[in-house]
Amino acid sequence: MCSTDIYNSWLLLLLFPSKSFLIPKFVFITSLLPTPNKFIKDLNQLIFKLLWNGKDKIRRISAINNYEEGGVKMIDVETMIKSFRLAWLKRIFSTNAGTWKKCLTHLLKESGGLLLFSCKYDVKDLSINSQFYMKLLLWWSKFRDDFATKKD
Q: With a threshold of 0.70, does the pTM exceed it?
């Protein structure tokens, strides 16, 4: 057994069944901190490589499905991170006050404040000095556009 196989075996023991333990910890951290897309992609590839012990046996979208639908209830890391980030919107529009809200309001001041979330915008046109909020605004605009398209 070569060192790569031993390494992958240890990773497999650490990550699975830690689908309910270790992976959510990665996702939680990446949902709070600016995370390079390459890291998210590499993490997702590592998880699927370990799941199948090499190349994917079925399409990843199928693996994410429930057992009844032929999947293995695998986690889609990127989607999970996006959902955690978009959950910040609920906090943003709640009536609770917080210092972080003042910071966000200040960052969005030149772009229309919180009203920006109700508008159609191109993130490239915004000058917000926060990777976290820029990504949140990007994902929100994509989500809003996709939802509006599907609803029509």
A: no
